[in-house]
């Protein structure tokens, strides 16, 4: 048996939508772009949505839109995919890491205020693995200290906390549509915001800094080519129309795993906050402290030998060599994050898993434990 780590949920609707665009001359900046943005604002409940070519591009434009300057500090989590922190480096900012909460695996709000300095400009929390960070507390701390908030919801589309959607808690929220995400456009990303200035700057900067209505070769500011083609947007529209079905299938896959791993004392899982609705992104379990990082690595190698896709989501960002070199971060600074990073196992996870595949993966995993 071969079980892939992740798999996009693509149907005839997405294939038809792509072919429909290919029958028109509008492969980019056509009607599918505003339509994708419209269905996103409807789904998320934000005033604006700005589609771009990746989640990383979306984060970069948010960092620029809040006017981050070289040397400015942004408080963020070391337990994430590296893009949530790299976007700060793009503008010469300094990522200031704050350790995570041992149960939610998200940035620990109780530790944030101690990390604020006169150079702090923003907080960039991540809704890691589809569970919303403690955004109400983070928002409160940010307001008290005059900081902007960019919510990295790349892994959390459709998640919510107390009925409020992931991506809507900060000044801007960001989604990613790489094929391993819940919703995919092949490559793609989206900024959601209620802020006119962030929206206007993002629209301008994604397309070479053009102004609104001032012409194709009038560039008002430094911009990029972060546009998302109409082909990608058409896939996104079809995916958003199916989002409830896609997320519900992923919930079913998660329930297969949870039923089989519930009584397993040698592992633990991420604990959502009260009032949290999870959008299942991955199936990551944490080995108990009896296991070392080397034990975990051996388990991953053995799972792969049996055709079971798996990964070590995530290695700590502050220990990536270029972060350690540039900012002097070292092991021991964020012990809760490091202990988790050494012991995570991401098991195969997507919405099209069959129960017998989950049986096969869980049996193999428990034998290795
Ligand atoms: C996937 C992801 C991103 C970046 O998305 P891309 O579309 O791959 O650029 C950013 N942050 C987090 C937390 C992610 O998981």
Quick summary:
The protein is of the alpha/beta class. It contains 12 helices and 13 strands.
Shape: globular
Q: Rg, please?
A: 21 Å
Q: Report the total helices.
A: 12
Ions, cofactors, ligands: which are bound?
pyridoxal-5'-phosphate
Oligomeric state of the chains present here: single chain
Q: Which CATH class of the largest domain?
A: Alpha Beta
- The ordered string of helix (H) and strand (E) elements is HHEHEHEEHEEEEEHHHEEEHHHEH
- In percent terms, what proportion of residues is strand? 5-15%
Average pLDDT works out at 97
* CATH H-level homologous superfamily name of the largest domain: Type I PLP-dependent aspartate aminotransferase-like (Major domain)
Measure the end-to-end span. 20 Å
Strands ordered across the widest β-sheet: 1-9-8-5-4-2-3
Number of domains: 2
Query: Helix/strand/pairing class, anyone?
Result: alpha/beta
Binned, the helix content reads 25-40%
Assigned CATH architecture of the largest domain = 3-Layer(aba) Sandwich
CATH topology of the largest domain: Aspartate Aminotransferase, domain 2
Number of strands: 13
The residue ranges in which pLDDT falls below 50 over 5 or more consecutive positions are none
């Amino acid at each position: 048996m071969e079980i892939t780590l992740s798999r996009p949920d693509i149907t005839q609707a997405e294939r038809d939508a792509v072919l429909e665009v290919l029958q028109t001359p509008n492969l980019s900046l056509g009607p599918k772009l505003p339509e994708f943005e419209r269905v996103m604002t409807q789904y998320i409940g934000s005033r604006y949505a700005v589609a771009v070519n990746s989640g990383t591009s979306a984060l970069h434009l948010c960092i620029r839109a809040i006017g981050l300057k070289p040397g400015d500090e942004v408080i963020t989590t070391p337990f994430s995919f590296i893009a949530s922190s790299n976007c700060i480096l793009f503008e010469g900012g300094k990522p200031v890491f704050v350790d995570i909460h041992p149960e939610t695996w998200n940035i620990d709000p109780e530790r944030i205020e101690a990390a604020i300095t006169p150079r702090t400009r923003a907080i960039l929390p991540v809704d890691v693995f589809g569970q919303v960070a403690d955004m109400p507390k983070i928002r409160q701390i940010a307001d008290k200290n005059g900081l902007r908030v960019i919510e990295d919801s790349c892994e959390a589309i459709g998640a919510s906390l107390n009925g409020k959607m992931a991506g809507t808690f900060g000044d801007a929220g960001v989604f990613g549509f790489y094929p391993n995400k819940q919703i995919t456009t092949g490559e793609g990303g989206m900024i959601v915001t209620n802020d006119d200035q962030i929206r206007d700057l993002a629209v301008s900067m994604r397309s070479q800094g053009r102004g609104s209505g001032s012409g194709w070769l009038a560039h008002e500011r430094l911009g990029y080519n972060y546009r998302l083609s109409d082909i990608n947007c058409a896939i996104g529209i079809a995916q958003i129309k199916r989002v409830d079905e896609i997320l519900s299938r992923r919930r079913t896959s998660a329930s297969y795993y949870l039923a089989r791993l519930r009584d397993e004392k040698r592992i633990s899982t991420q604990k959502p906050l009260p009032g949290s609705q999870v959008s299942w992104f991955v199936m990551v379990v944490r080995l108990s402290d009896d296991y070392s990082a080397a034990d975990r690595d051996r388990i991953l190698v053995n799972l792969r030998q049996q055709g079971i896709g798996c990964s070590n989501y995530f290695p700590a960002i502050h220990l990536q060599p270029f972060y350690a070199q540039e900012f002097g971060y070292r092991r021991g600074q964020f012990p809760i994050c490091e202990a988790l990073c050494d012991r995570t196992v991401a098991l195969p996870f997507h919405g099209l898993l069959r129960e017998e595949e989950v049986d096969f993966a869980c049996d193999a995993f428990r034998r290795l434990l």
